[in-house]
Amino acid sequence: MDFIYAVVPPQVLNQIFVGLSRTTILFIVSSGMSLILGVLRIPNVAHGSLYMIGAFMSFTIAKVFGGGATGFWMALVLVPVAVAVLSLIVERGLFQFLYEREHLMLLLLTFACSLVFGDLVKLVWGAEYKSVPVPHMFQGFVPLFGGIPFPLYNMFLLIVGPVVAVILWLIVNKTKIGKIARAAAVDREMVGAVGINVSWVFAVVFMIGCLLAGLGGALVAPTVSVTLGMDHTLIMEAFLIVIIGGLGNIWGALLGALIFGLSQSLGILIWPQFGIIFPYLAVIIVLLFRPTGLLKSTW
Amino acid sequence: MIKDMLGGRSRIAGIVLLVFLFFLPLIMPRFYVYMASIILLTGLLATSLNFVLGYGGVFQFHHCVFYGAGAYGTALMLTKGGFPLWISFIVGPFVSALLGLIMGIICVRLSKLYFGMLQISLGSLVWVIVYRWYSFTGGDDGIHGITMPDIISSYGNAYYFTLVVTLLCLFVMYRMIKSPFGSALQGIRDNPIRSEMIGINVRRHQVMALTIAGFFAGVAGALFVVVDNTVFPDMLFWTLSLEAVIMCLLGGWFTFLGPMLGAAIIIALRTFVSTYTVYWALVLGIIMVFAIFYLPTGVLGYIEEKMNKKMIEPVIKE
């Protein structure tokens, strides 16, 4: 290993792994957003709020089940389902009436939802900081490159990311709903013409996308302090990732999340105060050369 | 425009409104004068947004960057540079215009939704820089207690200054919309391809419109410094931008004075709701949902529609 360290210092390697575990969260959330954007063509501003709701819900579940392993796994299963149900209610109750209208209206409607969700979270959980305990089995550190401790939970995230990516790939490419959704992304009228209820396709896709937001929230909860306002920063990052990846392209979201996560974590190493600027710079560089994103967008 | 179509009656209403605005500080307590100033400058912000959104058809989602840039430009010139107010007040909007030009050139290559999303991201870059650069911009604290020259330091004079500048800017923007440039802009909104065919340089027109809109948003930001004597990074956060879009939508984004009305409705509501509850965002969200569903052309657009119906009876009844 020593010759590797001579080329790349262990701190940098370690930081790359930190970046990769951040990438996992970003990928899960922004792939959901990308899915919705690709098929429904809504830039879902409420996506961040659903992520925040997911994090707060996993706080409650961890509290109810005592913060142990059960609480953690229950949260990981129940939270995405709950968020998906919530999104389905919103989609059937509000969004489905506006698909024929301008995109601007849909965007504003999602913004309205994000405002309402934000205040509902304040109403239910209060404005204080919340912290979700890391379950016992993921507490502690593993020595990584050069013996620098790396949190075990982030290691777990590094496994979850690829698993979610594979499942998503299977759903989009191998299942019927995935195929219909891809067709609807390209030409929704044609899909309707062959007798498929496009409205329900949209509902299912919206639900899957929001489920991913909830999952992201549940996964991120043990690593950060759960607060109001975590939606705002995330939604910005997800927007950027989706743009540099190519609108509606899930693999673009993966690529974008990688660029974003890595440039952020390495940027902090270079310039601690302004580390947060590096992802934005990366985005601008990408867009100057490829204005419509790295990969092909769906529409 | 209502004014043009109705002639007499609305002109009288307009004059009454102007007289009322002029005498406002004499008859209203300080709180309302302050609120009126904020309404005027926010209305100017919304109108400048509508210049590109409603008339230009450009999805400018992050317009408040220019508002904030104008405010910070003015405030920094005053506090760090020690320049007199009048110079700072002019420099601030030009900073915004420059920023609008740069962002316009980068973003205008993309269409509709893509444009909006890229614009939001570039705007957040500006926000991040302002938010993190403690030594220069004051970070998340912003800059407080900016001293104004005596002549406009009192709330009444600050109000008159805001009123005059806002009316002047509205007049200039109105003339611009009625000019050949404005017509070309609206042509681009309705059919970009056809506009390109008849020899309009679509992108150059759009960049110009974005620069102009940035300039007037900067004026609004500079006015905020005059009225409130503070700047803070939330002024260029994207939620405020979307709020400005709501103002346009609620007031009527195909009318000239709609955004002003929308700003008045939202600011007044916020002021009164905030005295009862902290859940203003919830109320705003619900108002938005209703506006989107039932008032797609906005309040002023709705009134205009009704009046048109009254005035022009359909010749053939179906």
Describe the structure.
The complex is a heterodimer of chains A (299) and B (318). Chain A has 299 residues and is mainly α. Chain A has 12 helices and 4 strands, in the order αααααβββααααβααα. Chain A has helices at residues 2-7, 10-39, 47-64, 69-93, 103-125, 152-174, 176-186, 188-193, 198-220, 230-245, 250-270, 277-289, and strands spanning 130-131, 141-143, 149-151, 225-226. A two-stranded antiparallel ribbon of chain A has the order 1-4. The mean pLDDT of chain A is 84. Chain B is an all-alpha fold and 318 residues long. Chain B contains 16 helices and no strands. The model of chain B has no long low-confidence stretch (mean pLDDT 84). Classes of the chains: A mainly alpha (299), B mainly alpha (318). The A-B interface holds A 41, 43, 45, 94, 97-98, 101, 103-105, 107-109, 111-116, 118-120, 122-123, 232, 236, 239-240, 242-243, 247, 273-274, 276-277, 280, 283-284, 287-288, 291-292 and B 59, 61, 106, 109-110, 112-114, 116-118, 120-122, 124-125, 128-129, 132, 237-239, 242, 245-246, 249, 278-282, 284-286, 288-289, 292-293, 296.
